[in-house]
Write a structure and sequence with these properties.
The protein is α+β, with helices and mostly antiparallel strands. The protein is 24% helix and 21% strand. Helix 1 (4-18) crosses helix 6 and helix 3 (153-162) packs across helix 6. It binds a DNA duplex through loops.
Amino acid sequence: MPELPEVEVVRRGLEHWVTGRRFAAVEVTHPRATRRHVAGADDFSRRLRGRTVSGVHRRGKYLWLSLEGTDEALLAHLGMSGQLLVQPAGSPDEVHLRVRLRFDDSDIPGGTELRFVDQRTFGGLSLVSTDEHGLPLPVAHIARDPLDEQFEDTTFASALRRRRTGLKRALLDQSLVSGIGNIYADEALWRARLHYARPTDSMTRAQGSEVIASARAVMVEALARGGTSFDSLYVDVNGSSGYFERDLAVYGRAGRPCLRCGALVVREPFMNRSSFRCPRCQPRPRRPRA
DNA sequence: GATCGGCCCTGCCCGC
DNA sequence: TGCGGGCAGGGCCGAT
């Protein structure tokens, strides 16, 4: 599924391909894709028409296109299986095409259109108001992500210690830090040698800083490997092809040796999903807190 | 207010 | 071969 590094790759691609272009026609082919646009799909299409993209931005896994001369933005979340594709206008529809966005130059020879494709429909698009900083209102309450220049590790470490919950649960809490999903949480915990149920209020500031630095390091490495050429036409996210998969240390590696100590990686149920850890490097705390 | 559990949705994969 | 069930997951909402 698209994680923060993949969303950043999409952002860069979109910046190259859609900035400065004006929407001419928007077709919603599956209503669930615009369910967060409360006024409905027709309103979404009508209000987007004639707007010009002035920039492409990201916070955590949220992506948005700012619109010239307005205090509104086209907000996108890719969910588990969403893709934003820049495709030749008139090329065959994808099986799971949910929204087609045509520009006023899509009809010229070699012209392209933007498509939102989403198999599992966890993602979606909406047209939303922005605050005085240009931040979409639904994103305003979300914390900065570890790749944000203004993210402060020491502030995070202090906030973490004030929480009374388990460490992984805190890492997945978007109001504390955004952009960390199940995979990167497990990888960061492994690097920091910490258990997912470690009570946050028992952690030292150094441990808090280390776990967030680890999360950032994994993401930066993934981004470096995924930073493909943005001159290519397709602004693609494909979870199944996962360029970073072969480099994961614990996620999805149950029963295989820990890359650090050789103990067999275990998989445990956690929050209706799975957690992977090394039982030797990341021992269970005396008083775990899920 | 903070924390936590359940649900949404669809395709793939495995076991019977 | 066909079918049913489990699994994947971020964000939202309601319960505690």
